[in-house]
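#lab-general

N.A. 3:47 PM
ok so I finally got the sequence cleaned up, no stray characters, all 157 residues accounted for. can someone with queue access submit it? mine expired

B.Y. 3:52 PM
send it over

N.A. 3:53 PM
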Amino acid sequence: MKQRLLLLAILATWVVSMHAEQVSTLIVTTKSGSETAFFLKDKPQVKFEGTDLKVSSTAGDATFPLADVLRFTYAMRDASGISETYDPKTGVQFKDNVLVISQIRQGSFVGVYSLDGKLLRQLTPHHSGTFRLNLSDLPSGLYLVKAANTTYKITKP
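B.Y. 4:20 PM
back already:
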């Protein structure tokens, strides 16, 4: 019975991954390794103004200092905009409304974002180690956590 359930779970995961919609995306990569994606269906417009790269779309706008931009490219991405990631160096756990970030280096940026890209919480540690962020005041939902150039998704019940 357990083997059948495991086989069904693996099959369901495979079917879902095979049907993930891929969409054309503009990706701006900064020198810090962060990526910001704009779906082409949102009609992003790229402009160079002074020392900035500005991207405007129907979903929102963003400005990047040109000195920080490593590249901007086009690629196919999952339509959800969320991909599974894993980083063995930095650990992120979420339990009982507390986000625990372990093995983070001094000066690394940790950000908690809503799905529409708004920064809700941030942490820049002054020393290496393990840190905790209390997220009890955030409403239930799905959030993105960017820590040490890796993005995690968490669900707050």
